[in-house]
């Protein structure tokens, strides 16, 4: 009976030791991820450490912070191609939507108060990116809020510019009698 207890105690000690080592490993991974997130928030481009997708993500985030929205969207697209985890995909789509939304907002408006074609295109693409993000993670409150904000902006200025048809010719035939 004492031999059985000794073996059971050794088994439980081994399981406890493995559990403690596993917790230490996952704690170390969590700490590494937090450090990388802090670097990204601080605007440091990740060049070493982290996955290639994370490196592209941090480069795109930095480009977006500096107002280079077009290149940020392209770099997020590259990060999307390299994203190993399905967890990262909705965040990448969300950031693509944010950069497209900001790109549309910095465009100038026409004289009649409507958006230029480039802004309309950027808003439409941002809407698609937000919807894609919400398909991947339907509970993302930030994506829902930004999509609602985008809808309100689009409702105000998305009507097309009115065309003045008094100066348009329908063909190359002269108008009137000869």
Automatic annotation (TrEMBL):
Q: Which InterPro entries match?
A: TPR-like_helical_dom_sf
Q: What is this protein called?
A: Tetratricopeptide repeat protein
**Domain of life of the native organism:** Bacteria
**Organism per entry:** Methylophilus medardicus
């Amino acid at each position: 009976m004492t031999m059985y207890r000794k073996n059971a105690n050794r088994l439980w000690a081994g399981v406890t030791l493995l559990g403690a080592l596993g917790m230490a490993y996952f704690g170390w991974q969590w700490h590494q991820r937090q450090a990388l997130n802090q670097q990204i928030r601080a605007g440091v481009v990740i060049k070493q450490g982290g996955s290639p997708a994370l490196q592209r993500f941090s480069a795109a985030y930095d480009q977006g912070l500096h107002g280079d929205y077009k290149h940020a969207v392209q770099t997020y697209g590259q990060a999307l191609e390299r994203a190993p985890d399905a967890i990262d995909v909705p965040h990448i789509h969300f950031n693509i939507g944010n950069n497209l939304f900001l790109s549309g907002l910095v465009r100038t408006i026409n004289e009649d108060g409507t958006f230029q074609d480039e802004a309309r295109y950027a808003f439409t693409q941002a809407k698609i990116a937000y919807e894609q993000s919400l398909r991947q993670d339907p509970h993302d409150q930030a994506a829902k809020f930004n999509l609602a904000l985008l809808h309100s902006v689009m409702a105000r200025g998305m009507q097309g510019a009115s065309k003045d048809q008094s100066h348009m010719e329908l063909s190359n035939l002269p108008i009137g009698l000869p």
